[in-house]
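Still learning. Any example?
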Amino acid sequence: MPYQHILLAKLFPGLVLSAVSMLLLLAEGVWFLQLSPAFLLLAIVCGIPGLIFINLIGIMVDLQLPKLRWSSEQEAVKQNLNPPFPLVIGLMAGGLVVLASFSLGISMLGTTLGIIVLFTLINIFLYRLLLTKGPGWLEQIEG
């Protein structure tokens, strides 16, 4: 099976689960905070590149630091320290975006466009990096 198919097969389920979580969180925001439809649309549009970013980072972490030695399924999941890495990286990236937005006094629409462009470019870079370096990393795991 080509590596690109393996990469996409790992990426898409993570995106679906992340998107469901994002939509549930936004639904709660609408219910409790009465978020405007414009804000919802902007949050969804700029959230998609963020979700892709987090999932690509997660794949990179899994390829670099695989949890291969475990004695039970519970140990493989509960003692795996890989999930916090993409979370921390995502929080730092989001924090930098918020800080830059407030520091520069950019409007909500400008911030949304900036997030879309910035994270789309980062995602393209990460995807290409995974396509070029990923097979070697996977081979190291298998070897």
In short: Residues 3-66+80-142 form one domain. The chain has a mean pLDDT of 88. The chain has one domain: 3-66+80-142.
